[in-house]
Write a structure and sequence with these properties.
alpha+beta, four-stranded antiparallel β-sheet, about 50% helix, globular
Length: about 425
């Protein structure tokens, strides 16, 4: 893992200097980062990932610093176009370092496939008949992927649910599949299709849907951290953070934005490593519904020493094999920077990043408000969009912050003024 994720003055380095710093920290060769250049992945390379390709779309790829996870320092790769996300995660990780950083754990990588049985005349009896032949169904499913079984994965059990819908009672068979280091969609879908005929015959009905569920509530990862009260800004800041969290826990309107802040960190790492952001997001938001009410994914408390304790537990169906993780050069590079050896390690790194992102957002909201830091970065983007050089951009950003006028037309007028030799 990274020798030391605290890299002095990283934010002020050039791209080349940052590559050198990351290489020195991780032990990777700087030549590896040439895969991140704009011409390293073109339309022809992307042709097998999607359809009707006529180009590729690039996003900024950075690393969050300062992370310690289970006692080991790590650099976290993040792909995002949103200003302040990577800086915020890095800052929150810094505030967790004095107390040991982030501590993580995971359940087994169990994904579920659903087989929907329709036109079953005796659903309760059908459920019992299917459970009586569980071993037979599991053996048939596992025969579809002997390699997965060989490495310790495969179907570990099944459940049968009766779902009362508007016009029917559906019998739903769930295959519980340990997918090891894969995200798992292809494996579980193949198994579901293979056994659907047999379970339909046992139930004396018909099989309709045969597909995984993205409600991956048996594949959970969790992270906790203690954030130093002095680095946060003192007892008053902690109390305000707790008020903000408690509102998110109680009110779905606040929870939606609160959880979006978590996903700013989560999705950035998922995307950087070539995993499925839509699957992770679907699982996260379904997990946030408790007893029919949408609530906060995270929890925050004050410990006996007055420090802030944050915890986050959520589904994290990510893998190291399959999809873009092996095809896209940037994803391969990101995984090497992350230095994870299993899908569970990657999942735990992602959840730790989500918790850091969440804490950073809460701290800003509880102190200066979101606009000051976020809009200063937005001002830099506006200045760059107007064609300002570095010296001009610095002046423009200061003026926009002073005036609180973060508009492109104002950037243009300031830039015109600077280049004409005028002053305020």
């Amino acid at each position: 893992m990274a020798e030391n994720s605290r890299i002095a003055d990283f934010r002020n380095m050039s791209v080349g200097e940052r590559r050198t710093a990351v290489a020195e920290t991780t032990g990777l060769d700087t030549e590896l980062f040439q895969q991140l250049d704009a011409n390293s992945f073109g339309p022809e390379d992307a042709a097998d990932l999607s359809e009707n390709i006529f180009g590729v779309f690039s996003l900024p790829l950075g690393v969050a610093t300062n992370f310690t996870i289970n006692g080991t320092d790590a650099l976290v790769p993040m792909a995002t176009e949103e200003a302040s996300v990577i800086a915020a995660a890095s800052n929150a990780a810094r505030m967790a370092r004095p107390q040991g950083g982030f501590f993580t754990s995971s359940s087994e990588p169990i994904m579920q496939a659903q087989i929907q049985l329709i036109n079953v005349s005796d659903p309760h009896a059908a459920r019992t008949r299917i459970l009586e032949r569980e071993s037979e169904i599991i053996d048939l499913a596992n025969a579809q992927d002997p390699k997965l079984v060989e490495v310790g994965g495969g179907v570990k059990g099944l459940t049968v649910r009766l779902v009362e819908a508007r016009t029917s009672t559906y019998v739903l068979v769930h295959l519980l599949v340990d997918v090891r280091d894969a995200m798992g969609a292809n494996a579980v879908n193949t198994m579901a299709e293979a056994v659907s005929g047999s379970v339909a015959a046992i139930a004396e009905g018909e099989a309709l849907l045969r597909i995984l569920t993205n409600k991956a509530d048996r594949r959970l990862s969790r992270a906790r951290a203690v954030f130093d009260k002095e680095l946060l800004g003192g007892e008053g800041v902690i109390d305000n953070i707790l008020h903000a969290y408690e509102l998110a826990a109680a009110d779905s309107y606040r929870a939606a934005t609160h959880n979006k802040g978590i996903m700013n960190g989560i999705s950035a790492v998922v995307l950087a490593t070539g995993n499925d952001t839509r699957a992770v997001e679907a699982g996260a938001h379904s997990h946030a519904v408790v007893d029919g009410r949408y609530t906060s994914l995270s929890t925050f408390e004050k410990n006996a020493d007055g420090d802030l304790v944050g915890t986050l537990e959520m589904p994290m169906p990510v893998g190291l094999v399959g999809g873009a993780t092996k095809v896209h050069p940037a994803a391969r590079t990101a995984l090497q920077i992350a230095e994870v050896s299993t899908a569970q390690e990657l999942a735990e790194m992602i959840v730790a990043t989500g918790l850091a992102q969440n804490l950073a957002a809460l701290r800003v909201l509880a102190t200066e408000g979101v606009q000051r830091g976020h809009m200063s970065l937005h001002a830099k983007n506006l200045a760059a969009s107007a064609g300002a050089n570095a010296e001009e951009a610095a002046i423009i950003v200061d003026r926009l912050i002073e005036e609180k006028a973060f508009r492109f037309d104002r950037v243009q007028s300031i830039l015109e003024e600077l280049r004409s030799g005028g002053s305020r």
